[in-house]
Design goal:
By secondary structure, this protein is of the alpha+beta class. 44% of the residues lie in helices and 11% in strands. The two termini are 29 Å apart.
């Protein structure tokens, strides 16, 4: 924020932040694709029509004749009932007699009129309207209604029915979502076509038209049918009917391996972004999805426990169970979806003496809690399997899943087990706020009380890889630079590819450090596609910054064997990407089918910006704002693009809007100060910088610029104070002590100025300006 007579020029808005840093690190969790394509070679993609694909399917009803038992089990399962038309036997209890329930400032009424199920609730204009519930999504433990609206859209009601308690409730809890918000039930965040349909139906195609902002979504079959897991079976049906009563091998059957079935389950039981929106059973998960893993955000805890709505796959991928070959069907019946055995009996089918090569566990001596079927000495006394589910478990701590698969409630009523098989560790709670299962039951006792028992019972056994790894990731999430060496070692020596991937991603902020760069470059040839993808994620910004060695290292990944790696590489090499290449066409297809969501528009804007077309980039950002007008990050990132185009007044407007939506976000105040300075409105610069450091007292660039601004206004004492605060927040930035040296020089404090200049050179021996200033001081 310096004046023209000042020695140090303040950064512009674009220089003050890596352009599009926020947006390009986020992948959209979205639905199916408008352009359905499969790779056929280096010449590009072949479009496969919906008619071609759907002609291969026979429908679940065609399976019943030969597979009656499996069909009956599936039909009543949550898969079989994942989406359906309203049925009187199911819906009458929810709609008859008419009823009304209140949620936050709103109310919703439910009724049946002439056989039509209706919701009377707030529409787009805020007043209550009557909507027709034409489909039902979900089964147990909650059901929501699907309502058709113009443009081929189906929206998911926030009103949900709990079939266990026979009551309506709001899936948002106490939130009061308003019309116009992205997450309102009529907004894009609750749009069935994009957010829900692909996992609640069989071989769905979203078919979004960006030009008209409309959908023509189709599916083979409503609900998760037999062919969702077994693949298209019409050829099998035809062959079987043609060769009835003949003892012949069916040539149409393609066996799906355990690993392929696991990845088929993962397609819907993971938090991920869709690449193609057109996965089929047997396909590689990595060719169709971009997995969300532990990172700097609050999506997962540092030890891998689920935090946000993360589903099961990612946590399980990081578990020892996965690493030792356990897969979904080992514990779950594939047709009913229920566990094969109840309670501890399921765990002990592997962990009892002599059962498998898994560690033998006595649930009493291991848990130090009472366990049904065992006496206090840990001697098995027997259980009745038929009655086990309702057996009187004395203490919940005696159930394996309550310690190693703790539950978290989502959508107000849906309790989900964490599939990371994590180890309860109150020390991690004390150090980093990572939850532990002990405290879920004994919250009233406090962390120290729980930790004392864990130390007493398990002692030094707790200081194992699990704890050490969680501590490393937690410190990395905090930005602790001292963690660079342990994190690099984790990437190099970790036996789990998932945790290698986490290390690779967490190294992004230190990727320019030689030790991190070298370690990451070595992982570009890792045999695991997730490790390679996350390695590209962290090295990519260096390539965007113009480092030729990194560009050269990443270019071969455009021909990687896994599509997830090709997509991530194309994102970072967008500036030089050949859009006629396989990776280029895949990436354009990916951008095309995410265009119905604001995050997709941001990705398209980022692509245009990287290729130098800022004008078109801004158009995509404007569309993203239209799709989600209440998102501060979108407005923040658009402001940066506008500033690059010299449209400073518009940039200021967007930052002011972002601050109105998120008044305590320091970064927005900081960027607004820079934008105001560029726009010539210097009167507000200092107040916005002061607001930034008030919101975040450890924002080094805000303190640095505040020091420059105060000095420019003649407040030398305030300037030095701000620069000292900046240096304490970031002791590795040589510009800060250099700025302090120039201020001290003007005050005539030559020795202090010399010390500050020496400090700058100690941080960066190649800092020429500091060297010249030091020479000037020494010649006095």
């Amino acid at each position: 924020m310096a004046s023209k007579t000042h020695f140090i020029a303040a950064p512009t808005l674009a220089q003050g932040w890596v352009v599009l840093a926020l947006v390009t690190a986020v992948w959209l969790d979205t639905g199916a694709s408008r352009l359905h394509a499969e790779a056929v070679g280096s010449n590009g993609l072949r479009t496969v029509t919906t008619a071609e694909v759907y002609a291969q399917y026979g429908g679940s009803a065609s399976c019943r004749e030969c597979h009656e038992e499996a069909y009956a089990a599936w039909k009543k399962s949550n898969h079989g009932l994942a989406e359906r038309l309203p049925l009187p036997d199911f819906e009458n209890a929810a709609f008859m007699p008419p009823q009304t329930f209140h949620h936050a400032s709103q109310q919703t009424s439910l009724r049946v009129t002439n056989g039509i199920y209706q919701l009377i609730t707030a529409g787009l204009h805020g007043s209550n309207e009557t909507f027709k519930a034409e489909r039902v999504i979900g089964n147990f433990p909650l059901r929501q209604m699907l309502v058709p609206v113009p443009g081929g859209r189906w929206q998911v009601s926030e009103a949900a029915w709990d079939p266990r308690t026979n009551e309506w409730f709001n899936v948002y809890g106490t939130e009061d979502r308003m019309p116009g918000e992205w997450g309102h039930w009529l907004g894009r965040g609750m749009n069935w076509n994009s957010m829900c349909a692909v996992c609640h139906n069989t071989r769905l195609r979203k078919s979004f038209n960006p030009a008209t902002d409309t959908y023509h979504t189709t599916m083979v079959e409503m609900g998760v049918g037999c062919e969702s897991c077994h693949g298209p079976m019409k050829a099998h049906n035809d062959w079987q009917h043609a060769h009835k009563d003949q003892d012949l091998v069916d040539p149409t059957i393609r066996k799906i391996t355990r690993e392929q079935m696991f990845e088929t389950c993962a397609g819907c039981h993971s938090r991920r972004a869709e690449i193609t929106g057109d996965a089929a059973p047997g396909d590689s998960y990595w060719d169709h999805h971009l997995l969300t893993i532990v990172d700097d955000s609050d999506i997962f805890y540092p030890d891998g426990q689920i935090w946000n709505e993360d589903y099961e796959f990612t946590a399980f991928l990081g578990s020892r169970m996965h690493d030792h070959g356990v897969r979904c069907m080992d514990c779950h019946n594939i047709h009913t979806l229920k566990t094969k055995l109840p309670g501890n009996m399921l765990c002990l089918s592997c962990h009892a003496p002599g059962m498998t090569n898994a560690p033998t566990i006595n649930p009493v001596t291991h848990s130090h809690h009472q366990v049904y079927g065992y006496n206090t000495n840990g001697i098995f006394t027997g259980v009745n399997l038929e009655n086990y589910r309702s057996a009187p478990v004395k203490e919940s701590g005696g159930e394996c899943v309550n310690c190693h698969m703790p539950q978290t409630v989502y959508m107000q009523r849906h309790w989900r087990h964490d599939h990371g098989f994590t180890i309860p560790d109150p020390l991690l709670t004390k150090q980093f706020g990572i939850p532990n299962a002990c405290e879920r039951c004994h919250a009233d006792k406090g962390t120290d009380w729980n930790l004392s028992y864990v130390d007493k019972w398990y002692g030094t056994n707790m200081n194992r890889l699990y704890r050490q790894r969680a501590q490393t990731v937690a410190r990395a999430k905090q930005g602790d630079a001292k963690i660079l060496t342990p994190l690099t070692e984790m990437l190099t020596t970790e036996s789990s590819p998932y945790w290698q991937s986490v290390a690779a991603r967490m190294l992004a902020r230190w990727a320019n450090e030689p030790v991190a760069t070298a370690a990451l470059l070595n992982q570009l040839s890792n045999t695991n596609p997730l490790v390679r993808e996350m390695t590209v994620f962290s090295l990519g910004p260096l390539a965007e910054g113009g480092r030729p060695d990194i560009v050269a290292a990443l270019q071969p990944r455009l021909q990687d064997g896994s599509r997830n790696v090709r997509i991530e590489t194309a994102r970072h090499l967008a500036a030089m990407l050949d859009t006629n290449s396989l990776a280029g066409r895949e990436y354009l297809a990916f951008l095309d089918f995410t265009a119905d969501q604001p995050a997709g528009q941001l990705q398209m804007g980022a692509f245009e910006a990287r290729r130098g077309d800022l004008t078109n980039a801004v158009l995509h950002y404007q569309k993203a704002v239209q799709q989600d007008p209440y998102s501060p990050p979108i407005r923040h990132d658009m402001a940066i693009l506008l500033s690059q185009l010299g449209r400073m007044n518009e940039a200021v407007e967007q930052l002011e809007a972002a601050i109105k939506l998120a008044p305590k976000e320091a970064e927005y105040h900081y960027k607004l100060a820079l934008a105001l300075n560029e726009a010539g409105d210097t009167a507000r610069v200092i107040s916005e910088l002061e607001q930034a450091v008030l919101c975040d007292p450890h924002h080094p660039r805000a303190w640095y610029n505040l020091g420059l601004a105060r000095n420019g206004r003649g407040d030398v004492s305030g300037a030095l104070d701000a620069l000292i605060r900046a240096e304490s927040s970031d002791p590795n930035d040589p510009q800060i002590p250099f700025a302090r040296a120039t201020v001290l020089l003007h005050l005539g404090k030559l020795e202090e100025a010399k010390a500050a200049a020496q400090r700058a050179l100690a941080i960066d021996p190649h800092f020429n300006s500091a060297g010249l200033l030091l020479q000037q001081l020494e010649n006095h």
